[in-house]
Design goal:
Helix content is about 50%, strand content about 0%. By secondary structure, it is an all-alpha fold. The chain is globular, with a radius of gyration of 22 Å. It starts with a helix and ends in a 5-residue tail after the last helix. The protein binds heme C (HEC) (2 copies).
């Protein structure tokens, strides 16, 4: 197996991104302090303020160097993704109008299919998504693409995410609604993948545990997903784009990205960012979450007739 060889880019990725995020954070700070009066600059010893007056007074142009990997990622993105997600990743590609859900606007840094503590997808999350696509949405899979291409496009997507969040934050800093330090921290925490969620080993099910799963389902899920896994369509729920967001119809028996136990455990634990699907972290014990996941899987296996 060539696993060991394949692992490498994955380890390099986060390092480069951590560096990029730090560079961005410094830039957000510089941007705010740079154009301000000289005295502000001289009062910011931690800021590495520019020695001379910068000649470039351009606003947000993040200093993320276009590495060979990013150039490769951009090429792939422009060929295969921009028609939906838009050249800048704002979700406004040529094919975007009329799509529901809309192609993701990366600049908002909201992700549904992450398996990390802070909803920022890991490289593995992105690769899984790129390979499989999203069932029930227009997002296609790219199963034939090589790992290096997919890692490159993942890196390029992260660049777009960092640029989007940085633009939003530097706006807040210049409005005085956020300090530079807070902006730096926010940029890092909104764009750097947090620790992977640790899923406890999947317990076996039995009648008592399925009963418990049903109890939790009726308590916490039924109002959106419906008693038989067929949601009440008169319920008006919306996602962050203001589009109608219909709770997953378990009776139809599909999930968007992965239907294995651990994936559904994570969706139930963390919710789905940017949608009405809430997080149940802290509301139920890990054992209860496993039980309700098994009950949901049971609803999928017994779809309603007609
Ligand atoms: C035909 C349109 C289309 C194309 C082409 C497309 N996407 Fe998407 N993409 C979508 C839609 C729609 C969603 C939202 C799916 C949802 O919310 O259920 C999405 C979601 C995503 C997400 C968000 C995942 C998350 O966790 O929320 C990422 C990242 C993404 N796409 C990257 C890409 C990349 C990279 C490519 C090219 C390799 C690509 N997409 C090609 C339509 C597209
Ligand atoms: C306030 C309404 C609401 C409640 C309560 C709710 N959900 Fe959801 N759920 C949603 C919506 C909306 C979606 C679809 C989000 C999307 O795909 O954009 C969803 C999607 C899901 C998915 C699909 C994940 C995928 O990848 O396709 C699972 C699993 C899920 N919910 C489980 C649960 C469980 C278990 C409970 C109760 C413990 C629950 N939900 C409670 C609204 C809700």
């Amino acid at each position: 197996m060539s696993d060991e060889h394949d692992e490498k880019p994955n380890r390099i990725g986060p390092t480069i991104w951590a560096m990029a995020v730090i560079a961005m954070a410094a830039f957000v700070g510089w941007k705010v302090l740079g154009p301000a009066t000289q005295s502000v600059v001289s009062h910011a010893p931690t800021m590495q303020a520019p020695q001379k007056t910068p000649t470039i007074s351009e606003p947000v142009v993040p200093p993320i160097q276009m590495t060979a990997q990013l150039v490769r990622g951009r090429r792939f993105f422009e060929d295969s993704c921009a028609l939906c997600h838009g050249e800048r990743g704002d979700g406004n590609g040529r094919l975007s109008p009329g799509q529901a859900p809309r192609p993701r606007d990366f600049r908002r840094a909201k992700f549904k299919f992450a398996t990390t503590d802070n909803h920022v997808p890991s490289d593995d999350d992105l690769l899984r998504l790129f390979r499989s696509g999203v069932t029930g949405a227009t997002m296609p899979g790219f199963p034939q693409a090589g790992r290096e291409d997919l890692l490159a496009v993942a890196a390029y997507v992260r660049k777009l995410v960092v640029e989007g969040v940085a633009a939003e934050l530097s706006h807040e800093v210049s409005n005085g609604t956020m300090t530079t330090d807070d902006a730096r921290r926010a940029l890092a925490s909104r764009t750097t993948p947090g620790p992977a969620i640790v899923v406890p080993p999947e317990p076996p099910t039995d009648e008592a545990r399925l009963e418990n799963g049903k109890r939790i389902y009726l308590e916490a899920c039924v109002k959106c997903h419906g008693a038989d896994g067929e949601p009440d369509l008169s319920l008006q729920l919306f996602d962050e784009d203001g589009q109608r967001n219909i709770p997953r119809r378990f009776a139809q028996g599909f999930f968007k990205v992965g239907e294995d136990g651990p994936t559904l455990y994570i969706r139930t634990l963390k919710g789905m960012a940017g949608t009405p699907m809430p997080s149940f972290e802290g509301a139920y014990s890990p054992s209860d979450i496993w039980d309700v996941v098994h009950y949901v899987q049971l609803l999928c296996r017994h779809p309603r007739k007609n």
